[in-house]
Every structure is written in structure tokens, then in C-alpha cells.
Q: What sequence folds into this?
């Protein structure tokens, strides 16, 4: 029971930390390479604990990110639920992948995430440089093993494989 | 247990299939975006949301604010004395210029009175601090620590010691979002100080560059010209410096010249900025505050 509670705290803390990391000021030179922390953490939970993190959590986190970043309300939310839907839908298949294949999958999911954001920006007529849009996908896939390793190590129930 | 959990999950809570739930929430998001695209509809909801995420913004800003506090506390006396003497000499210089300004202002008022035009009322300003949070890196925006509780409104202008900074685009209870004049989607009506030529300054997305795309090749503009806000857009008060022209390329064969300017305000280095209430807004706000202070 206390393990359950511990995991719930970890879930909450990791989500808040992801939101904070998403707005921590960075030097202008590296700011475009900031990984998409929120989808990364959500993908982790959707793969490892799909019974706890679902579409509603993703929707709420997306709205929080929209509010924080001043984007169109629902923009990050739509991108987020798309990614989490795919993760939950295929979590049994994805989570037995070896680590490099898992990273490739995350790369793909983040690319979908950025594409949805990019697409909505285009429809809404907001001008955004195209090249820089894809930098977070690469950096996100690169930091994924760290997110995975860290969250999995502090998670209490290690009933799952990783 | 895990596999069972997975299967149960695929059916979703309350026996709604996952795919259907995904579809429903997508439709909700799309509706939200449609409504939000026309800004006014969702401003209430946005305000509530901004209150929810306020602790995160403050939490992120806290270490930076703490660091400023510590570095201020640890400044040694000699540095303080040096800064003090420097400020003293600066104030003297400013005071001398202010003496002339007072005379000029009085003269201006007299002349305006003779011309029977309305006297210019001085603007009310409020110093605000920028929260150390990054928004979308592709847009030139930041968050300030004042909102509805201080009577901030959408479209309000921000200045710093050197010139025009930007305007408010959305207001929450405790915070507001500012778009800088260097944002690629921002345009600002200006007049050239030397000859009064009116034009529009457009942001580039780079906080050290502005563009003047609507000047013809034979327009009277030179590098070094000072651009002042003209007040024509109805948002920015007139007569504040916006930038200085850096280079003018007149290209034969093109009908418009390529003019680049440097913003006067320190857009990327500011910590404190000034919110401006122009004359008639100020009256409104003064009414509001006197009501608030009454009980």
C-alpha cells in the first residue's frame, strides 16, 4: 500500500518537475534544444503504468503547458493526447523493446508531437522557424535513456521489465 | 497482473474504448483551440488556468530571485560606494536636463492652450518585475508578476529606461504575458524624430533587430535616425523612443528600401520594466483604486 502511495507521489512530482523544466530559463544559444520534458515523462508513465496515466492526465498536462507557454489553448493538449494514446495503445509491444529501439520509438513519438504542434501553428497562422522545430525531437530522444533510467530506478514496484 | 491491467486499460474506465476516448478528448481540444483562436471567448478560463500554474512559475523563479537577493547582500562596501557616487553624478546630469524639461513642458502647455488643443496629461507608470521563466523560444514573449489584481489590461504598453519594450497580450490574476516589439508578429507605428515621417516597425524574432518594411526607396531616412512611437495605433503612448536606424539599403529595382533598426530598450537584458497607463486609462484606474481603498 505504501508502495502504491510512494509511486503516486513520484508520479505527481515527476509531472510537476517536467512542467518546471519546460519553463526554466536557458541561455539563448541552447534554448531551442530544450527537450520536450513533459511528453517524455508522460510517455514513460504511459508505457510503464498505463492503468494510472491515461488520456485525461495527458490532457490536463497539455493544458497546463499551453497556459505556461502562452500557446493556443488545446495545442499542446492535442499533441500530448496523441502521443499518450499511441503509447498506451501499444505499451505491451513497445516496452519489451531493447533500449536503442525504445529510443527510436520515442524519437518517432516526439516527432509526431512536434508535427502536431507545427501543424496547428500553421493552421492558426503563427510564424515559426521550421528547422528549429525539430531540435527538441533529437535532444528528447537523446535524454530519453536518462529519464527512463532515473524514473525506473526510483520507482518502487519493479514488477515490469525495466 | 500487469497484462490484465493492460487489457482492462484498453477498454478504458467506464467501459469506453480507449480509441473513442481519444477521439472525444481530441474533439474537446479542437473546440478549445477554435474558441481560443478568437481570443476573447476563453479569457476567463485562461485566467483560472494561469492561477493554477502560478506556483510553478514562482517556484522556477525562486532560485533566480534568491540568487539576486544573495548577491545584493554580499556586495561589499567599496562597490556600493562606487555605485553610489556614480548614481549621484548621473542624477546631477539628469536634474540639469529636467530643469530645462520643466520649462519646456510649461511652454508646451501654454502653446497648446493657445491652440485650444487638449493638454497632454502625464502617464502613470508602475515598475514590474519579469519572472525568470522561458516561454516558447520561437516567440519573443515573457511573463511579468502583475495581473488583474493591479489593473493590468490587454494592450497595455511596457517601457524600460531606454524605450518601448512591448505590450500585454494576456492577463491572469497574478501574472500577465507580454509580447516584445521584436516578436515576428508585432508591428508598431512610429515617427522619425528628425522629420516626423510616419511608418511602421515590425519585429524580426531576433531581440536585437527591428525591420521597417514599408519605406520607399526615396524616403528620407538615414542610419542613426531616432524612431519615436507615434501613438497612432492607440496602444503605445506617443513620444517614447523605439529604436535607432542601423542600416538603410536602397535597392534599385525594388520599390521598398530595406531598413534595419536596433531597439532602444534592452529587450534581452531587462529585469524590471514599467507598465504605462496613458492619460484616460489612468483616470479609470485611479477611480478603481479609490473604490478599492474606500473600505
A:
Amino acid at each position: 500500500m505504501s508502495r502504491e502511495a510512494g509511486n503516486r507521489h513520484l508520479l505527481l512530482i515527476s509531472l510537476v518537475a517536467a512542467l518546471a523544466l519546460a519553463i526554466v530559463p536557458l541561455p539563448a544559444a541552447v534554448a531551442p534544444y530544450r527537450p520536450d520534458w513533459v511528453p517524455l515523462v508522460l510517455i514513460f508513465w504511459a508505457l510503464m503504468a498505463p492503468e494510472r496515466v491515461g488520456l485525461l492526465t495527458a490532457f490536463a498536462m497539455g493544458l497546463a503547458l499551453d497556459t505556461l507557454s502562452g500557446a493556443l489553448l488545446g495545442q499542446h493538449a492535442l499533441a500530448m493526447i496523441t502521443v499518450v494514446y499511441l503509447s498506451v495503445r501499444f505499451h505491451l509491444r513497445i516496452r519489451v523493446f531493447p533500449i536503442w529501439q525504445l529510443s527510436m520509438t520515442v524519437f518517432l513519438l516526439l516527432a509526431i508531437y512536434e508535427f502536431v504542434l507545427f501543424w496547428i501553428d500553421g493552421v492558426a497562422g503563427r510564424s515559426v522557424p521550421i528547422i528549429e522545430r525539430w531540435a527538441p525531437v533529437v535532444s528528447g530522444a537523446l535524454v530519453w535513456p536518462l529519464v527512463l533510467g532515473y524514473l525506473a530506478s526510483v520507482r518502487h514496484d519493479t514488477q515490469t521489465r525495466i | 497482473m500487469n497484462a490484465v491491467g493492460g487489457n482492462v486499460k484498453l477498454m478504458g474506465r467506464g467501459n469506453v474504448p480507449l480509441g473513442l476516448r481519444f477521439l472525444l478528448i481530441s474533439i474537446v481540444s479542437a473546440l478549445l483551440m477554435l474558441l481560443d483562436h478568437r481570443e476573447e471567448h476563453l479569457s476567463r478560463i485562461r485566467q483560472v488556468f494561469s492561477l493554477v500554474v502560478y506556483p510553478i512559475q514562482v517556484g522556477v523563479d525562486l532560485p533566480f530571485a534568491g540568487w539576486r537577493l544573495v548577491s545584493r547582500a554580499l556586495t561589499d562596501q567599496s562597490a556600493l560606494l562606487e555605485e553610489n557616487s556614480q548614481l549621484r553624478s548621473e542624477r546631477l546630469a539628469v536634474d540639469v536636463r529636467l530643469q530645462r524639461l520643466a520649462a519646456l513642458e510649461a511652454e508646451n502647455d501654454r502653446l497648446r492652450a493657445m491652440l485650444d488643443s487638449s493638454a497632454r496629461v502625464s502617464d502613470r507608470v508602475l515598475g514590474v518585475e519579469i519572472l525568470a521563466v522561458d516561454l516558447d523560444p520561437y516567440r519573443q514573449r515573457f511573463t511579468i508578476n502583475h495581473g488583474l489584481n493591479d489593473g493590468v489590461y490587454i494592450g497595455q504598453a511596457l517601457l524600460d529606461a531606454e524605450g518601448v519594450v512591448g505590450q500585454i497580450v494576456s492577463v491572469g490574476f497574478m501574472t500577465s504575458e507580454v509580447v516584445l516589439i521584436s516578436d515576428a508578429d508585432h508591428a508598431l507605428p512610429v515617427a522619425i524624430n528628425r522629420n516626423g515621417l510616419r511608418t511602421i516597425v515590425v519585429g524580426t524574432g531576433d531581440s536585437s533587430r527591428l525591420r521597417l518594411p514599408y519605406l520607399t526607396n526615396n524616403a528620407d531616412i538615414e542610419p542613426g535616425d531616432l524612431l519615436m512611437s507615434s501613438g497612432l495605433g492607440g496602444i503605445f503612448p506617443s513620444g517614447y523612443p523605439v529604436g535607432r536606424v542601423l542600416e538603410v539599403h536602397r535597392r534599385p529595382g525594388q520599390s521598398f528600401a530595406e531598413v534595419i533598426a536596433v531597439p532602444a530598450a534592452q529587450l534581452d537584458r531587462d529585469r524590471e520594466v514599467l507598465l504605462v497607463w496613458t492619460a484616460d486609462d489612468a483616470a479609470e484606474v485611479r477611480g478603481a483604486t479609490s473604490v478599492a481603498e474606500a473600505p
